[in-house]
Amino acid sequence: MKQTIEHNWLQSDFEKFERTLNGQAGSLVHAFRRQAFAQFAAAGFPTTANEEWRFTNVEPIARGKFLRASATGDVADQDLRPFIIPDPAAIRLVFVDGFFAGHLSKVPVLPAGVRVESLAAALAADVPGVIDHLGSLVRPHDNGFTALNTAFLWDGAFISVPAGSRLEVPVHLLFLATGASEGRAIYPRNLIIAGAGADLSVVETYAGSGRRVYLTNAVTEMFLGTHATVEHDKLQRESPGAFHVGTSAIRQDAETLFASTTMNLGGALVRNTVHATLAGEGGDCTLNGLSLGTGGQLVDNHTSIDHAAPGCTSHELYKSVLDGRSRGVFNGKIFVRKDAQKTDAKQTNKTLLLSDDATIDTKPQLEIFADDVKCTHGATVGQLDEDQVFYLRARGIGEIEARDMLTFAFAGDVIDRVHVESLRSQLHGLVHQLLHEGRIPNDH
User: Fold this and answer.
1) CA–CA separation, 292 and 257 (whole Å)
2) Rounded to whole angstroms, how far apart are CA atoms 50 and 432?
3) Under 8 Å CB-to-CB from 5, ≥6 apart: which residues?
4) For a designed S-S bond to 92, which of 106, 228, 427, 441 qualifies (C-beta 3.0 to 4.6 A apart)?
5) What pLDDT, in 10s, does the model give residues 370-422?
6) pLDDT of 289 over the 50 cut
7) C-alpha to C-alpha distance for 178 and 231, rounded to whole angstroms
8) What is the largest distance, in Å, between two alpha-carbon atoms of the chain?
């Protein structure tokens, strides 16, 4: 249903954005932006009448009138320290309120043909492959958020690793929201291309300083050529009052290996959508996730793995630890196309409820159109095992410590699947601290 009020302020914001483009207003990219805004104007924000958004009411975002953030220059190296991964060799691109911060970034001399830079710079330089790939996996008509991200597309990360090349160190993409002013929207757009036989590891971190209310609406598109390997981790540490809507789309060609772990540790309302397409024979896709919720937080994880080619394998494990009045949502879909024989797919969702008021809506789904497949899915929801608590207490461990130990063991199963060793070590300490000390109550 068209929502006139939201269109008025967004239309004004889009027109203001256009006035900053100068000579770029006639470019192919801006035609893409205009088309995207038209798509949003026709559809508006998704509502709970939409099956894909049935458990996630985004009306607080629509009412919030979040205007596009401006470039901010008052961030120093020490402001990054809580959020950077402790790996001195890592390549780092930093974006502050959605804009590339070169003085905070660290890009060494790269192997021939490898590019790690801001998307705005790649577009300005007309780097081959950028226009061809941008927007081919995530389209404006998918939903109102992807339409707005495309309409306000300006900056983000561009990573391209050519055929046969390997990046020996991880690439850390840090998106820091300063909360310099209330009610700002940040629209990161990332494009990652791994050529045939390429190998790389990428970490996306979304973090906020302070407690102001803002919106991060991020889109990442990833392409894997034949025999490519991409390890991907996403860490969401937005501020307690923030809204985070993230969309990731992956296309895998034959014999590729993609593995991703998503960690949700912040935000007031969080929605992560991950869509992977196994487009070539023999591909392997792994999606893992861990969400910690407390107070009035809502954390929604939507995943889909499309087995479009034969002989592919997928593994999926998503866990949630929910306390207070927090709510979790998990909707995981596995599609097996008619020609995707010899598919092997497994999906598991597990939720630990630490409070009588915490809730989870979980919906694992299989849609199978082939007859020679091996597919399983399942979901469990429960509380801590009191017998295990008693066992630990009988050995001299206090009740609080016993519960913390069991909760951390539940969460640690996912943390141990994080690919970058320095990030994994950092997460062990951070999650242990959050579970032991109690997360900041969030009543939004």
Assistant:
1) 28
2) 37
3) none
4) 106
5) 999 999 999 999 998 888 888 888 888 888 888 888 889 999 999 999 989 99
6) yes
7) 28
8) 73
Q: Give domain status of residue 191, yes or no.
A: yes
Question: Strands, E, within 55-156: which ranges?
Answer: 67-68, 91-96, 99-100, 115-118
3-state secondary structure of 434: helix
Given the structure tokens 């596995």, which residue do they identify?
A: 334
Report d(CA 76, CA 138) in Å as an integer. Answer: 33
Pairing of strands 115-118, 184-186: unpaired
Determine contact, residues 152/29, Cβ cutoff 8 Å.
no
Contact yes or no for 299/351 (Cβ under 8 A): no
Q: Is 235 left (phi over 0), alpha (psi -120 to 50) or beta?
A: beta
Cα 213 from Cα 322, distance rounded (Å):
22
Q: Kindly report, residue by residue over 46-67, the tens digit of the pLDDT.
A: 999 999 999 999 999 998 889 9
> Does any domain span residue 41?
yes
Whether the CB-CB separation of 254 and 280 falls below 8 Å is answered with yes
CA distances from 39 to 8, 44, 83, 132, 184 (A): 15, 8, 35, 20, 22
Which residues form the domain of 39? Answer: 4-384
Nearest partner of 170 among 413, 418, 411, judged by Cα = 418
On average, the pLDDT of the chain sits at: 92
Residues 6+ apart with CB under 8 A from 287: 260, 262, 274, 276, 303, 305, 314, 315, 316, 317, 318
Contacts of 314 (CB under 8 A, 6+ apart): 276, 278, 284, 285, 286, 287, 305, 307, 334, 343, 344, 345, 346, 347
Measured CA distances, 281 to 40, 133, 219, 305, 341 (Å): 36, 21, 26, 14, 10
37, amino acid identity: F
pLDDT one-digit tens code per residue, 178-190:
877 678 999 999 9
Cut 0.85: pTM above it? yes
CA atoms within a 13 Å half-sphere pointing along the CA-CB vector of 376: 7
Residue type, 394: A
What would the pLDDT profile of 156-180 be if each residue is shown by its tens digit? Answer: 999 999 999 999 999 999 999 987 7
244 domain residue, yes or no:
yes
Whether the CA torsion 19, 72, 173, 330 is positive or negative: it is negative
Domain count, the chain: 1
Can you give the C-alpha Rg of the chain in angstroms? 21
Give the per-residue pLDDT at 27. Answer: 84
Place of tokens 């209310």: 213
